[in-house]
Specification:
The protein has helices at 4-7, 17-58, 60-66, 86-115, 121-134, 139-165, 180-204, 208-216, 221-232, 234-250, 253-258, 276-283, 290-322, 331-338, 348-355, 358-361, 366-402, 408-412, 426-457, 462-476, 479-494, 499-523, 527-535, 540-568, 572-575, 595-603, 608-640. It has 641 residues and is mostly helical. Residues 9-22 and 324-361 have low confidence and may be disordered.
């Protein structure tokens, strides 16, 4: 398949010495430009490989020492230099799988609620927006809310579960202060937007003919949903579940703050546990020698798990988009779309055949249908209400608790020493803006260049398919691994934690979002603009820079804004790169404060003043991210209109 410029090259150019001489002067510029954007696209592929290779090289000492026994050993003892991550594997797998088991009926139910006309549009639109905003809340804020709001509310329930259902292994121990159950619930809430968005897309893609056919044979809404819509869109729903599972496996900050970080395997969800990401976050700053290598071995295992899960998710979603609905339909559903009720004038033979049709044998009990429809509708309404209640609880807690220190001092002063009152997070604001700016400055040119190659020059080429695949893989890499990559690339090379290292880590986090959204933006540019540029003798570089990119600028800016919103709330990558500083900005190559790390540090502090500052900082961060998300939504809406 030819690229966009090969396709439009047949358009005749305007004659004239100036136009005819132009290609001879600029041909080499076009070739150089194409090679540059191709190199930027290949950089995405190389980046994924570099992350895996760096982790593998750093993990070699532990690999040689422990081998595969590292995955089956329960002891983690730095004194004896004995390391194993079986308890962390157990905690990661159990918390993620249970969260998915709770999530799927809740998420699919909300998707059905939003997709069907169960409630008026004036109700469904704000609910949809609220579910989308759950994805914009940083994980460290979920952890803060979990510690101070969810845990106190859960304690009576956890005690009741132990007292009444203690004979069940999952509730067999006395409730601990931090445990697996609150972690599971927070993970369920965090991955909710992924499942809702993808499931809603899958269900909405069911052809209207199937709905009309179901109505033609007398099926009600829930008979259509359960008998046709869900089976037809199953591959998309499964892809959503697997993608959400990958997100849950790589979650770091919420797990660190809620799970208890105990190196043990316990069947009880009321006991503390640990995850691979939490182990790395807790011990990396003080690790050295074999312990450091063991942590990077654990990171390599985490990357392997997330890559496998994300590859499966992408394959399910791809098969969903490329499959033909009719091939996977139940015979009854297929007959609904192809067979209409026969005319009374048809032959007796046709009437006899019609008597054997499934729809003629299908005579459901009217009372049973009404009861089932009522219960299912009530169930998805309750599930939607639970999600909205959780979102409202987070926002109310942020406003209620964060307003206590929302004053000028919070924005103009430095963090206070222990036991002191007052203070602020001025240094964290400047540090966050600096590192996000560095990350955007690095990732935006690479992402845009990669998108230009994929759309304008790489259409139909195998290299483009690989680049898109690895960009999807990169988007599923846990942010903690991006931080470890930047640690090895910048911190170990320079010998210091710094704002530069933090910016590089955030650039890796932002890159796949910018590349993907920029590619979609360039695809929306009308082909006629390219043809018109060629018709007047413009070279590819002239047309792309002067016509195509300006036309796609609103959507490109939206993608960059969304990437900035995500990077603003990242915590785990900065723990290993920028570290934290109680003081103001002293240079690009010095440790620097950030809002997310300040929230994490102060949330775990025993001092009320620090906790109040953590809530205020969380309020500021969430308000900023939500404002950016709303602005991006309106930019997209304006572009579509």
């Amino acid at each position: 398949m030819r690229s966009n410029w090969e396709k439009v090259s047949v358009v005749p150019k305007i004659s004239g010495d100036q136009v005819l001489s132009r290609p001879r002067r600029s041909l080499w510029l076009d070739a150089v430009f194409q090679k540059i954007v191709q190199g930027l696209a290949i950089a995405i592929l190389l980046l994924v490989a570099a992350i895996a290779i760096e982790l593998a090289i750093a993990a070699i000492p532990a690999l040689k020492e422990f081998g595969l026994g590292f995955l089956l050993t329960m002891e983690w003892n730095p004194v004896k230099n004995v390391y194993g991550i079986l308890p962390q594997i157990y905690g990661t797998v159990v918390s993620s799988l249970v969260a998915i088991a709770l999530e799927m009926p809740l998420g699919v139910g909300i998707a059905i609620f939003l997709n069907e006309d169960i409630a008026p549009k004036v109700v469904r639109v704000p609910i949809s927006f609220a579910i989308e905003l759950l994805a914009a809340i940083p994980s460290v804020v979920y952890g803060l809310w979990g510690i101070f709001v969810l845990l106190p509310a859960l304690r009576p329930l956890m005690r009741g579960l132990h007292q009444n259902l203690g004979w069940i292994p999952f509730f067999s121990t006395l409730p601990a202060n931090r445990s697996l159950l609150p972690t599971i619930l927070v993970l369920t809430l965090m991955i909710l937007p992924i499942v809702v968005a993808l499931s809603r897309e899958a269900i909405a893609a069911v052809p209207m003919e199937l709905r009309m056919g179901a109505m033609a044979i007398g099926a009600n809404r829930w008979e259509f949903i359960l008998g046709i819509a869900i089976p037809t869109s199953m591959s998309g729903i499964v892809g959503a579940a697997v993608l959400a599972l990958g997100r849950a496996i790589g979650e770091t900050m919420a797990a660190v703050m809620l799970i208890g970080n105990a190196n043990q395997i316990n069947w009880s969800w009321l006991a503390p546990s640990s995850t691979i990401a939490a182990l790395i976050a807790n011990q990396f700053s003080e690790a050295k020698g074999l312990q450091l290598s063991a942590l990077l071995y654990a990171a390599l295992v985490l990357m392997a798990l997330t890559l496998i899960v994300n590859i499966f998710a992408n394959s399910f979603i791809t098969s969903f988009h490329s499959s033909h609905y009719e091939e996977n339909l139940d015979p009854l559903v297929a007959q609904v779309t192809t067979d209409l009720p026969q005319s009374p004038l048809e032959s007796e033979e046709s009437e006899n055949i019609a008597k054997d049709r499934p729809e003629d044998k299908w005579k459901p009990n009217p009372t049973r249908r009404k009861i089932i429809s009522f219960l299912l509708t009530l169930g998805i309404c309750l599930g939607t209400a639970i999600a909205i209640f959780a979102f409202s609880s987070i926002l109310f807690s942020l406003i209620n608790k964060g307003a206590s220190r929302f004053d000028l001092a919070a924005f103009t002063e430095l963090p206070p020493p222990p036991l002191a009152s007052g203070g602020g997070f001025r240094n964290a604001i400047t540090g966050t803006l600096l590192m996000v700016g560095i990350g955007a400055g690095i990732s935006a040119p690479i992402g845009l260049g990669a998108a230009i190659y994929l759309v304008e020059f790489g259409s139909g080429k195998p290299l483009s398919s690989w680049i898109r695949f690895f960009n999807g893989v990169l988007s599923g890499v846990p942010s903690i691994l991006c931080g470890l990559f930047a640690y090895g690339l910048v911190v170990l090379t320079s010998g210091t934690f710094s704002a530069i290292a933090g910016g590089v880590a955030l650039a890796v986090v932002m890159l796949p979002t910018i590349a993907r959204t920029s590619e979609e933006a360039l695809k929306t540019v009308a082909p006629e603009l390219r043809e018109g540029a060629i018709a007047i003798g413009a070279s590819p570089i002239q047309a792309i820079t002067a016509i195509v990119i300006p036309a796609a600028t609103p959507a490109i800016v939206t993608g960059v804004v969304l990437a900035i919103a995500r990077a603003t709330g990242e915590t785990a990558p900065l723990l290993f790169t920028a570290l934290f500083s109680q003081y103001g900005l002293n240079g690009l190559w010095k440790p620097v404060a950030s809002m997310s790390v300040l929230i994490y540090n102060f949330a775990l502090s025993p001092y009320p003043n620090d906790q109040a500052l953590a809530w205020t900082a969380a309020l500021v961060v969430v308000a900023l991210i939500l404002s950016i998300s709303v602005a991006a939504r309106f930019l997209t809406r304006d572009q579509l209109n």
